[in-house]
Amino acid sequence: MIVAFSVTPLGVGEDVGEYVADAVRVVRESGLPNRTDAMFTSVEGEWDEVMDVVRRAVAAVEARAPRVSLVLKADLRPGVTDGLTSKVETVERHLAG
């Protein structure tokens, strides 16, 4: 499964990069395949391991912010691995053709 999620601290002002970095650090240290862009961090793995990473990423932000917003989107597709790469490669192949 692939989960794309965004953790936003609320009540800490406009500059939230250092708080978001706490969440991304948890994801990167998990060892699961992941990508971060301007809006979301995506992580790939089995349900329990991915959801544990999301939970810990939220907790890292929650430890420093009075309120946290979580947006989460999941692609549950049994048997598919390396979806983070293969989905993008498919789109790029269609763009090139």
Automatic annotation (TrEMBL):
Pfam families reported for this sequence: Thiamine_BP (PF01910)
Ranges where the Thiamine-binding protein domain occurs: 3-92
Source taxon at top rank: Bacteria
InterPro entries attached to this UniProt entry: MTH1187/YkoF-like, Thiamine_BP, UPF0045_domain
The family this protein is said to belong to: Belongs to the UPF0045 family.
Name of the protein in question: MTH1187 family thiamine-binding protein
High-level lineage: Bacteria, Bacillati, Actinomycetota, Actinomycetes, Kitasatosporales
